[in-house]
């Protein structure tokens, strides 16, 4: 299990190692064809900032070589905001006294119709973490409902046991996104003080259980804004490299969501909670390029959390998939558009505007790039 490797590393030593990288280390990394974890540290480091233009050009060429001039389109469908965890950065947190809602079969199909009319063929099912209301039986039923309408079904829900994942794969689940949130174990519980999510090791071993269950693709990542992003991304890369060796038939993707403001109702008075910015746009560009130079095969996603101008410029940097017209609340497309969002999105442009932007840059928006019959 990855925990055996993870436990041999020290967060503080890794952070100091990244900060100690020099311009010479960055140049050495850039001149290699295959890059090690030490090279990745150099590309993440502050010493790499003066090389950003060179990194961007290399990332652009490397991405086109593997993926062509394409951007895969996807959209989230929030099924429920029920959650039994307290997470200090999430509007669905148990201690946020909001109206809870879980979509019925009829409501799911209402949302699906609107999403299909927008052209999507890849859907991401999202829930809070509440096994008693949105457990395996609910998820299995949801997959059965949406499967006739979509070629690719992804899921971002609570971590499950290996047998649970195997059941959902059998139903037609293709991809699971599971973010560690932060790999800084000392502080993990500070952000997750209550609920099953507070179990750091159970979450850390989730990709192992997914690999053993035979999932087609695993999405990794951390929340940018909780802890030092450079150190968190190194541990994500360490995790990825382990998984690629252990579960070599599985595909992988990575994303790096920056925390967005949320509505807080817990005090009985509506209020907004914002977060300290740990990463500026220039650093996010550095991170995208560093990932691409580290892994040619890795899919890189960027969501509507990011601003229009950043997403427009990210198309040629190394990104391979984008969401569009996203709603982050259950029933947000048509059933209950006024329900509480999990977080505020930044890019609220309609789908045709996003795809037009992609085409004007010489890229093709792709709605379907995989079929179960070929697996």
From TrEMBL:
Residues 69-305 form the Radical SAM core domain. It comes from the Bacteria. It holds the Pfam family Radical_SAM. The keyword Oxidoreductase does not apply. GO terms for biological process: thiamine biosynthetic process. Its cofactor is [4Fe-4S] cluster. One of its GO terms (molecular function) is catalytic activity. Keywords: 4Fe-4S, Iron, Iron-sulfur, Metal-binding, S-adenosyl-L-methionine. PROSITE patterns: RADICAL_SAM. This is 2-iminoacetate synthase ThiH.
